[in-house]
Task: structure prediction
Amino acid sequence: MALFQIGCQTYSWEMLGAEWQGTADQILDAVASAGYAGVEFSNQMIGPYLAKPDLFAQALAQRGLAFAAFAYARAGFSDPSQEVEDLAGADEALQFVSHFGIPLCLGGPSSPDRSNRETKLAQAVRFYGEVARRAQARDISVLIHPHSHYTSLVLTAEEYDQLLGAVAPLGIGFNPDTGHILRGGQNVMDCLKRHRSLIRHVHIKDVDAKGNWTPLGQGITPLAELLAWLENEGYSGWVVIEEESGAVRPEPSAAIAANRRTLRALYVG
Result:
């Protein structure tokens, strides 16, 4: 029996930047057609639906999709001069999420460079704590999603330990991403097992041995081992698939459909 369901993240469209001129509805159509059970949108891709949660709920229902999570990121949350704007965006995200009973996934701490890393990381942790405090009043779960883009301040196993050790007492859970873990030089399974108690939501991406993004199943992410481990652990949250390789060009919908077929061969959820 399947314990968890398979969702799709919208970054395959977001990464195209100005090349993508479509709508959230077109993304929903592609995700539903590919056979995913749900979708995770980001603040960059939700568009006008951010102010119209009831209409978004209708759009999901029309396609038989669940809302797995909502991701919020800006410029890395490490710059105190951006804190007012960072929190304003978080408040918008919390207001939206409160209509659905889903987790809010916050992007990991980053900066244009890693100078004064400890000071920048401390600022990000303060931001995460304030968002968690505001979320608690709405009974919203907050998760953190470390990444390997844009000079991430958290890459290595020791840096993951530092960040998660700082945010766990604030009531914040862990949204691991296999691709970003690998690109930081870590062993995926070691990282997941070390932080199992904090895992609430999982992203799966694939990379090759050099850290280049690949379609799912064509890289070094240990998919079968990972899925079996999640089942054995009784994990019942979402497993959300992302695609960041060149396969999204010229058509993201074909890339996410191929990934869904890859997962269906390994897991029935």
